[in-house]
Amino acid sequence: MASRQATLKRRLPSWMETVHNQHKKVPEAVNHILCCPDEVCTEMVHSKLHPPAKLNQDATNVTHNLDIETSVTPSGWSFASAGTSNNTSSNMTAGEVIAKGMPLLAFKGRVIYSCHYDDCCCLCEEILSGLSESKKTPIGFDMEWPVTFQKGSSIKASLIQLCMSAEICYIFHVSAMPKFPVSLRKLIHDARILFVGLNIVSDMWKLERDYDVRVKPIIDRGSVIDIGKLANEKMKSSEHWSLDGLCRNVLRHRLNKDVELRCGDWNEVPLSNEQRLYAASDALAGYLLYESLKDNGS
């Protein structure tokens, strides 16, 4: 009887079992996005304004020197893997044990980082010029700012991350700029874009409070999709999701939620390679989760 009770305690809710058993493979659309050559993450740091051609050339010359192992899952996904550990604690829950064996979802494309006003404007204009006129372009949206433990205190957002695909992610270090870039404001208001992310509406309102970017029109016209709500609609659930929890249940990968990185100084200029990869991976997760969930029927 004791053994049966222990088994019952470890069982997932019925809707989670359905999700777990329904897709041993990730949806084909997302699988196609990530079936790309296994390359290290490249990035570009702007120190002054460059013409577009120079920007593209420089982007291929700077690479991360990160200690990351790569692995390919049975479905063909190429991800960075942190490996598994046999040193599991008896205090870990069943879910934590399962998650520990999952591969790490890490961004492996070009991370384009800008901490200068003019460069940010130039990059945003390039993004705008490449948007489709016939359909909305989904962009993984996220923000980072230093964690404060003082009640009632608020720190301005440091970064805005825009993940265009599994191949390219922009990180704009807005807290390092003298004012909020005009072209970035223009991009955020562009009706051709569909911003996707977890708790994204709250992030949008923070963006308005911190930088006086009007977000109500964006929200009202449906240009913002909360992937947590989308997941609950698809899974017929009422979970309060974390981004890592969604990745585990939908993408079968886990996120790096290292406390030192997550609670680090996001106002530091320039950001470290590890910080940039962390920020890009969060935005990528939002993008991939949206692509996966939208292709699954209710």
Structural features, described:
Belongs to the WRNexo family. The chain has 298 residues and is α/β, with parallel strands linked by helices. It has a single domain (13-294), classed as 2-Layer Sandwich (Nucleotidyltransferase, domain 5), CATH 3.30.420. It has 13 helices and nine strands. The strands form two sheets. A seven-stranded mixed sheet has the order 1-4-7-6-5-8-9. The chain has a two-stranded antiparallel ribbon with strand order 2-3. A hairpin with a 5-residue loop joins strand 2 and strand 3. The chain is globular and about 50 Å long. The protein starts with a helix and ends with a helix.
Q: Which strands sit side by side, in order, in the main sheet?
A: 1-4-7-6-5-8-9
Number of helices: 13
CATH topology, which one? Nucleotidyltransferase, domain 5
Total number of β-strand segments? 9
CATH architecture assignment name: 2-Layer Sandwich
User: What pattern of helices and strands is seen along the backbone?
Assistant: HHHEHEEHEHEEEHEHHEHHHH
Alpha-carbon distance between the two ends:
37 Å
Model regions low in confidence, pLDDT < 50 over at least 5 residues: 6-10, 34-42, 45-88
Structural class estimated from helices and strands: alpha/beta
Assign an overall shape.
globular
Q: Helix share of residues?
A: 40-55%
Calculate the mean pLDDT score and round it.
Answer: 79
Query: Which strand-content bin applies to the residues?
Result: 5-15%
Give the CATH level 1 class. Alpha Beta
Count of discrete structural domains: 1
CATH superfamily: Ribonuclease H-like superfamily/Ribonuclease H
Major sheet attributes: 7 strands, mixed
Domain 3'-5' exonuclease: 111-298
Pfam families: DNA_pol_A_exo1 (PF01612)
InterPro entries: 3'-5'_exonuclease_dom (IPR002562), 3-5_Exonuclease_domain (IPR051132), RNaseH-like_sf (IPR012337), RNaseH_sf (IPR036397)
Protein name: 3'-5' exonuclease
